[in-house]
Structure prediction request, 359 residues.
Amino acid sequence: MSAPLAPGTGPIPVPAAAGALRETPWVAFGGALGAASRSGVASLLAGVGGGGGGLVATQAVNLAGAFALGLLLGTLEAIGPRPRLRAFLGIGVLGSFTTYSTLVAEARAIAEATSPGVALAFLLASVALGLAAFVAGGTLARRGRLGGGASSAGGRERRS
Amino acid sequence: MAGGDAMGWAAIAAGGAVGALLRWSLLRLASRFEPAVATLTANLIACGVLGAATAQASTASDAGAIGTALAAFLTIGLCGSLSTFSTLCGDLIRQLRSGPRAAGSPPWRPTSSGGPSPSRSALCWAADGPGPDRAPVPQSRLDARGTSRYTRAAFRSTAADPRDPGAAFQVNPNARIRRVERGSTRPARPSGASHRART
Prediction:
């Protein structure tokens, strides 16, 4: 069989060690920045919603981070590979800015306060919203690259 | 965050750096087979550590400033940074749009219908933009991997970085044009050629 033609369908090349070492400080610096930013957002939103500020803050950082990652990766597609920028912003800042463990901890608190079904629905809704935010970010980057919705009619015309 | 003291902020930042580096290391290790495994592993480890740290904190008495900073390092910094939600979303989108199932069902629900599920179609439409309708691809246009010509053209020349969850957006903008011209390219491979070459 020929080489894989779509991402995630075959052997994946291992990143060069030297390149990965060059990106490592950027990942660490971005991770520190992202974690501090997340904590700052949590502090700002601590009093929102009558004690539910932590939940609101987690949702806010996750959705904003997913949207920003989609936007970043859609932009990187246009401007070409930028390993350090991707390592710093994508893996470091945005990867640390968003959190899954806190989301799960809040789902556990919801399960204790209400029922496991509500907590499961909360988790599923959070992931669905995150997917939508990620796709929205990528779509926004793509539309900005193509000059708005001009591709809409073009795509359908070419097909018909 | 518990308090705005400098030690707490430094602990969170240090934990964030360590967590990001651990996640980055997992990503490099898992890039040999599937980068999504790294995200899954990082999230699972972070949830386990956070659960243990929370249980420990609930039983401990007053820990003092150092204990508070250590807890902030471990929970808010390390666990919060080791786990990630944005990369998880990117991985999920990439899995939903991966090639072999491009004309079929989502990865977790194999079917024999040959058509995309409504949810997957909506995601692809949103990610690709309003392009061609995602009608079921006839079996005659699929290769042995179940990959359609449209999918192969879309991903052929992008050289997507597999470590990158944004491979979901590594789509060749000229793919639709190539699809129109597909009749003039790619000569058919003689049957059994690859088998003879290996043996």
About this structure: The radius of gyration of chain B is 23 Å. Confidence is low (pLDDT under 50) at residues 100-137, 146-162, 168-199 of chain B. The first helix of chain B runs from residue 6 to 30.
